[in-house]
Amino acid sequence: MSGHFVNGVPIYFSDPRRHYHGISAKTPTWFSAQGGVYRCREAGGLRQNVAIKKYLVVEKENQDPETFVMPKELVENEIYTMTKCAPHPNILRLHGVHIYKDHIFLVMPLCDGGSLQQYCFDNRVSLSQMVFILKGVSDFGVISMNPTADSSVEEAGVMLFWAPEVCEGKIINRKADIWALGIVVLEMLNGGKAPYEDDHMEEEDPIG
Description:
With about 210 residues, the protein is an alpha+beta fold. Helix content is about 20%, strand content about 20%.
């Protein structure tokens, strides 16, 4: 049974493995910057396929230093944002949330068409095609509903999409979102490769 609801989405304080097959897999079906995404199937009911995003939110003893621990407040923000934006035809609806031990699990519809980057790599994309390609937004891991934010505090995401003010640790607003959107458009037109893409960028300190 669900403990409570957030904007109509049930929050469960139970082990999702009791309700879904596939979440126990050693390796995620897909990897994201903050956690793994698993292709799962309901154990009962309609037995539909779903995608479950798994976040580690509590650091464990003797944990691999390479393991990413997602700040709990960012997961809570993602949950709130997804529920607040629904229903929207281009935003995935959150089916439910499971909070269990050291992890938080987000249950969403399964979209098995691959990533936008892979689609652009496999297909030549023109501006006229974009409206038919962008079917849904699913990753809200570092989104903010505030009109402004302090980038020195909320520094997150992929560096390739950072606006200059983010790199400088300044207060940011919607202009930083427009910059990131522009990078996505250029990435689509460039076969899935973002401008100035460099494999070593993530290893450098952009702030100094």
